[in-house]
Specification:
Number of helices: 7
CATH topology: Rossmann fold
Shape: globular
Structural class: alpha/beta
Strand order of the largest sheet: 2-1-3-4
CATH superfamily: Thiamin diphosphate (ThDP)-binding fold, Pyr/PP domains
Strand content: 5-15%
Radius of gyration: 15 Å
Largest sheet: 4 strands, parallel
Oligomer: single chain
Helix content: 40-55%
């Protein structure tokens, strides 16, 4: 049963300020950039991104998919962007290692609609048992890395990343 109320992240009220954590700010930035497809393999510290897209997908007109692993999540998002959609893919920090095979070919093939990969890190071991700083992946994958310091940075950088891609 629908209440007719939009999820707060979907409300379009220019000038209205809302308090969002970083993961939700990334979702909002993707929506503002016109994301049409989102895939992910859920895992902390990135779980809220995929879970939020799962809840709002129909109302936001975003195709959403939980994938069987991070590699598949990247591959289906890449296929969506090759078809012209603006695509996002989300994963935890350790998943980036697993998804490197398809990611490493993307700079050479290029994208059509724009693609942003969100790899939520945990360099201080706050929410995960493994420490990894995935910013170093930029060097050998030949892809830019955006490293937001605040939720507002996360929203803006997600929008900017789509334009950059």
């Amino acid at each position: 049963m629908s209440t007719g109320l939009k999820h707060e992240i979907l409300q379009d009220s220019p000038g209205k300020r809302v308090c969002l954590l970083g993961n939700l700010a990334i979702v909002r930035g993707g929506l503002e950039a016109g994301v049409q497809f989102f895939s992910c393999y859920p895992g902390t510290p990135s779980s809220e991104i995929g879970d939020t897209f799962a809840r709002i997908a129909k109302e936001a007109d975003v195709v959403f998919e939980y994938s069987v692993n991070e590699k598949v999540a990247v591959e289906v998002a890449f296929a969506a962007t090759l078809a012209g959609a603006r695509a996002m893919c989300g994963m935890k920090h350790l998943g980036l290692s697993y998804a490197c095979d398809p990611i490493s070919t993307m700079p050479y093939v290029g994208v059509e609609g724009g693609m942003v990969i969100v790899s939520a890190g945990d360099p201080s071991l706050i929410t995960s048992p493994n420490e990894q700083d995935q910013r170093h992946f930029s060097r050998f994958l030949y892809l830019p890395v955006f490293d937001p310091a605040t939720p507002e940075d996360a929203r803006r950088m997600t929008r900017y990343a789509f334009g950059f891609s």
